[in-house]
Amino acid sequence: MNALRSLSLLATLALALPALAAPNEAVTKPVKTVVQSVRYNKDDLALKQLANEEQGRFLLGEDWDKGTPAQRQEFTKLFNSLFAKIAFPKVRENFKNLASITYEDPAVEGTKAKVKSTIVIEHPVKKQEMKLQYSLAQDKGAWKVVDVAVLGDSMLTGIRDDQVRPIMKQGGWDHLLELMRKKEAELTAKK
Q: Tens digit of pLDDT for each residue in 46-66?
């Protein structure tokens, strides 16, 4: 009888383990999708994994709510396009010598999560190891990537402090969108 009970307990645990692992996979999947999509030149798929509104709120702070829905929508569209045209090619260049990527279990707190990863690049001359931390947020029940920090430096913080804030101080939403449109046209013409 004890053996039967022990066997039953083991069977129950074995069936429960995949269910326990599922939440971790739900959090890490968008990160892995972004990384692999960028690596294999599937930028549209990578962009679908981003938490656009959360990024906009972070980048523009209190100015996000001052923008009209049309301005926020255009900002998101332009930001995604510019990000894909500027950042993704640099990432792809590094990934040409990718040796491995390992992901740690996510740290989840409510609707926010962090996923750490280690990327090993085998350059022809030297081996490089980069520690990244992805910030995620739940968006309509799905996890989306908000930001990535490399060696503790947040990508969004750099963009906000070096570019968005100074532009907003110069001329607000109209000036920001005008400059983003110009940069988008310039990058599109270079293709």
A: 999 999 999 999 999 999 999
Indicate the pTM of the whole model.
Answer: 0.82
Nearest to residue 168, comparing CAs of 179, 154, 181?
179
Q: Where does residue 163 rank: exposed (0-12), middle (13-18), buried (19+ CB within 10 A)?
A: middle
Sign of CA dihedral 61, 150, 31, 88: positive
The model's pLDDT over 128-137, given as tens digits with 9 standing for 90+, comes to: 899 999 999 9
Q: What are phi and psi of 114, to 5 degrees?
A: -130, 135
